């Protein structure tokens, strides 16, 4: 049966950056994200005993076996779990710049898990879908839900899944995604998080995780934009500090990334409240309120050359189309 699912990306405000089990993608820490309305993936899954091979079509282009490997391995893993073994076709359209720190894998694997389950007529709860999405990519665990989402780290495959914190937040919060460089990143998330664990700052960071999650959940329920912004920026800086202090130090930052960080700091000094967060790439995302949005956009355009700005806010959870 042919089924299509749409999933939106999410941006982690409290970061996931380390695996307890790399095959199961269970994390070393809980994380908390905001699902975004502006970026999403539509995926159609079809399986049929008459198909003679597995096919993966991305943005209208049939992918080579090499480029399809991660996706095929993932589907074979799911098929093994549920006892299926027929061939399949996956057609995916990404409305997210691939591999540039805007987690396209989050929307991709969330949409894929959901279309897979629907195509095989598996009657799975969102909790089960969240666990399946996790097996494809950690951040996909959270894209099953909309709004604010917590991925509870759990301690095994059964207990590591996302829960919705507030799917329709009544909060004035916009995210400006600054696409400073959409080239493919050099160090994958999987590789980066392994290296980061060699930092002397890594363990102290993990120890603070429970408290950081509790604090941001409190800030969300208090609708406290300042606190949400401060905690988000801190978590991003903790992650990037671990990268810079790893045994083999590395950074995702590019010159334009630093310019954007400085701009946010300058704007704050001028009383224009905004905060940044950065993932495994050079792009910077700015958190702000509606009141300051226009002014921040024009300051970004003045300061950074060739920057593309996409405005986002809260997006919905995964849906079948
Ligand atoms: C920095 O989910 O892409 O965006 O589990 O290896 O697929 P894998 O990693 P991925 O890592 C995302 C890391 C992050 C932070 C986050 O989204 O929490």
Automatic annotation (TrEMBL):
Its EC number is 4.1.1.33. SUPFAM superfamilies: GHMP Kinase, C-terminal domain (SSF55060), Ribosomal protein S5 domain 2-like (SSF54211). Residues 180-306 form the Mvd1 C-terminal domain. One of its GO terms (molecular function) is diphosphomevalonate decarboxylase activity. Keywords: ATP-binding, Lipid biosynthesis, Lipid metabolism, Lyase, Nucleotide-binding. It comes from the Bacteria. InterPro entries: GHMP_kinase_C_sf (IPR036554), Mev_decarb (IPR005935), Mev_diP_decarb (IPR029765), MVD-like_N (IPR053859), Mvd1_C (IPR041431), Ribosomal_Su5_D2-typ_SF (IPR020568), Ribsml_uS5_D2-typ_fold_subgr (IPR014721). Gene3D superfamilies: 3.30.230.10, GHMP kinase, C-terminal domain. The keyword Nucleus does not apply. One of its GO terms (cellular component) is cytosol. It is an enzyme of class 4 (lyase). NCBIfam families: mevDPdecarb. Belongs to the diphosphomevalonate decarboxylase family. This is diphosphomevalonate decarboxylase.
């Amino acid at each position: 049966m042919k089924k299509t699912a749409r999933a939106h990306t999410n941006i982690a405000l409290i970061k996931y950056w380390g695996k307890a089990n790399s095959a199961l993608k269970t994390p070393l820490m809980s994380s908390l994200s905001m699902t975004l309305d502006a970026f999403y993936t539509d995926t159609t899954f079809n399986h049929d005993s008459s198909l003679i091979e597995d096919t993966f079509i991305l943005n209208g282009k049939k992918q080579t076996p090499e480029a399809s490997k991660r996706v095929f391995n993932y589907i074979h893993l799911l098929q093994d779990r549920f006892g299926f073994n027929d061939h399949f076709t996956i057609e995916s359209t990404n409305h997210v710049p691939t591999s540039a720190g805007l987690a396209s894998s989050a929307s991709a694997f969330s949409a894929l898990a959901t279309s897979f389950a629907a195509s095989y007529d598996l009657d799975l709860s969102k909790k089960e879908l969240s666990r399946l999405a996790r097996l494809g990519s950690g951040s996909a665990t959270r894209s099953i839900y909309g709004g604010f989402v917590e991925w509870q780290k759990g301690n095994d495959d059964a207990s590591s899944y996302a829960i919705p914190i507030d799917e329709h937040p009544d909060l004035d919060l916009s995210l400006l995604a600054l696409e400073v460089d959409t080239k493919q990143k050099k160090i994958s998330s999987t590789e980066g998080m392994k290296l980061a664990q060699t930092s002397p700052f890594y363990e102290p960071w993990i120890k603070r995780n429970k408290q950081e999650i509790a604090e941001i959940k409190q800030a969300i329920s208090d609708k406290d934009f300042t606190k949400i912004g401060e905690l988000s920026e801190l978590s991003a800086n903790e992650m990037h500090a671990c990268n810079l202090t790893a045994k083999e130090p590395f950074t995702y930052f590019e010159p334009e990334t630093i310019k954007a960080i400085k701009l946010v700091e300058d704007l704050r000094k001028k009383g224009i409240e905004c905060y940044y967060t950065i993932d495994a790439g050079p792009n910077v995302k700015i958190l702000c309120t509606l009141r300051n949005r226009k002014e921040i956009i024009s300051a970004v355009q003045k300061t950074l050359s060739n920057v593309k700005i996409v405005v986002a806010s809260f997006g919905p959870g995964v849906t079948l189309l």
